[in-house]
Amino acid sequence: MDVIEKVKRGERIGLEEALSLYEVDLFTLGELADSLRKKRYDRKSFFNINRHINPTNVCKDICKFCAFSANRKNPNPYTMSHEEILDIVETSVKRGAKEVHIVSAHNPEVTLEWYLGIFSKIKSRFPTLHIKALTAAEINFLAEHHRKSHDEILDLMIENGVDSMPGGGAEIFDEAIRRRICKGKVESDRWLAIHRKWHERGRKSNATMLFGHIEERRHRIDHMLRLRKLQDETGGFNAFIPLVYQKENNYLNVTRFPSSQEILKTMAISRIVLDNIPHLKAYWVTSTINLALIAQHFGADDLDGTIEKESINAAAGAKSAQGMALETFVALIKNSGFVPVERDSLYRELKVW
Ligand code: SF4
Fold first, then answer.
1. Cα separation, 166 vs 352, whole angstroms
2. Cβ(103) to ligand 1 under 6 A?
3. How many C-beta neighbours within 10 Å does residue 338 have?
4. Confidence (pTM)
């Protein structure tokens, strides 16, 4: 197949070529993605010791795939106090966390200072802890709700101690699909523009893609190509994170689950298409740890981290969302034939386990 030869020669592929890779048998595709992964990292698999915190689930938006926000199917609104958040952070730091990953719903009932105070208080108490916080969707919400520009919100994030941006809120960039699953949320162009502005400030971010719902394969490739284009210009994305759609407790009414084969093919094609984004993360909370370990053979070089606790995907039925002990995590990576490498949030190697 021409496209396979092209990838082997190190040439870029376009939308139709990438789509045709879905027709290649799983093992040939895996081998191709694995060879690209090996060139960069050999058998290293990266992770970090992190803690996910979701400070509020009160949301003005109504994304159909969401089971996290407080609504009729999940009538338990909560908003944490700064003290509660600091207590969680303190416990995690004592356990060795080097990063907090803070993502919230779009809560119109709290002030901008409530959002920003989370970061400034964490930073002043734990100056070396890396704060990864506020998705482009949250930034767009805060800007619109508090009548600020995106630039102003981004500058306030930096002033208050945010180090990098997570990749959430990207979902699927195709506008027609986006209208059906998350109408009203940040538009695709804006999501990309916010990341561009963040990169222009010398900062790093990640990019996600939610797949396995109503989108078609070509929408996934289109999503990757839009990211590849921006990355060519800024170089600011550290990692691409394909997230498997979770089907429970939401209003999308998609009850099927993408097959393991479809998930692994999507991982492998991500590695091939996104030749300029260094890391491909198998986010085990949504794919299950077993499939994430196998994904290491399909181009993934990063298994996120120990996580400790995660609420967003847990609400939607993810069975793996309660974190994992470090020893277990390390042993699983070793047993799967890879070398666990603890990294910091910017992918500097801290320890080879
Ligand atoms: S995905 Fe985020 S923005 Fe959408 S409803 Fe859920 S919490 Fe709100």
1. 25
2. no
3. 21
4. 0.94
